[in-house]
Amino acid sequence: DQQVKQNSPSLSVQEGRISILNCDYTNSMFDYFLWYKKYPAEGPTFLISISSIKDKNEDGRFTVFLNKSAKHLSLHIVPSQPGDSAVYFCAASAFGETSGSRLTFGEGTQLTVNP
Amino acid sequence: DSGVTQTPKHLITATGQRVTLRCSPRSGDLSVYWYQQSLDQGLQFLIQYYNGEERAKGNILERFSAQQFPDLHSELNLSSLELGDSALYFCASRPTDVAGGPKNEQFFGPGTRLTVL
After folding, report:
1. Which of A22, A32, A67, B26 is deepest in the core (most CB within 10 A)?
2. Reduced to 3 states, what is the DSSP secondary structure of residue A104?
3. Average pLDDT score over residue span B60-83
4. B70 touching chain A per CB within 8 A
5. What 3 state SS string does chain B have?
6. Running DSSP on this structure, what letter comes out for residue A46?
7. Is B105 near chain A, with CB under 8 Å?
């Protein structure tokens, strides 16, 4: 049961344009959402997060949007830079007695930003 | 650099063997998480410890066990290894909740690549 899904395995954009990465979830108990960036042979690097009480969070070039009714979140990167080329993972968590604060990850989207 | 360290970086061993992976969390972080990333499964949660106590368990096999020591470092023990255990194993730590509500940013180490031959 894939509770967090990233339906696009890859995305290619031109430098300077907007990159939009999408993520859908099914578990309505999720109340915290995160985006991570991962380069080969490295651990995931935290990028930005959003609580379920908000619908938008912005940090520099990165903005995350949350649509709870649609169980959908997206990451916008503006402007995209070649150094942004990496695999991006969406993750979600639900605080609770048995779930702790584990992260449930999507499959990842490979972003390629072309110069 | 996330501040989370993991050793060794690479481990090559044979089926049936036992290995220990080590993780040191960021200074001050009490929570440690272990995740497995295999080719066909993506990043999967294995187990969480908080200040020395097991807090939550995920899809962790009975052949695998973990513990967190008084100095907060953690070890993941994998025994009776099978070919399918070949994967990247990541450790993450999480800051203690601060004013403003709980957050769940987890900071990952560089991982240990385990190859079982």
Report:
1. A32
2. strand
3. 96
4. no
5. CCCCEEECCEEEECCCCCEEEEEECCCCCCEEEEEEEECCCEEEEEEEEECCEEEEECCCCCCEEEEECCCCCEEEEECCCCHHHCEEEEEEEECCCECCECCCCCEECCCEEEEEC
6. E
7. yes
Residue-level length of chain A: 115
For A11, the token pair is 């995305």
Q: Which residues of A touch B90 (CB under 8 A)?
A: 43-44
For residue B65, the model assigns a pLDDT of: 97
Distance between CA atoms of residues B73 and A30, nearest Å: 28
Q: Which pLDDT tens digit goes with each residue over A80-115?
A: 999 999 999 999 998 765 556 899 999 999 999 999
Closest-CA distance, A108 to chain B, in angstroms, reads 8
- For residue B116, the Cα-to-chain-centroid distance in whole angstroms is 18
Render pLDDT for B12-62 as a digit per residue (tens, 0 to 9).
999 999 999 999 999 989 999 999 998 777 899 999 999 999 999 998 999
From chain B, pick out residues whose CB is under 8 angstroms from the CB of A86: none
CB atoms inside a 10 Å sphere around CB B12: 12
Contact B48 A46 (CB under 8 A): no
From CA A100, how far away is CA B17, in angstroms rounded? 31
> Nearest by CB to A49, which of B6, B45, B103?
B103
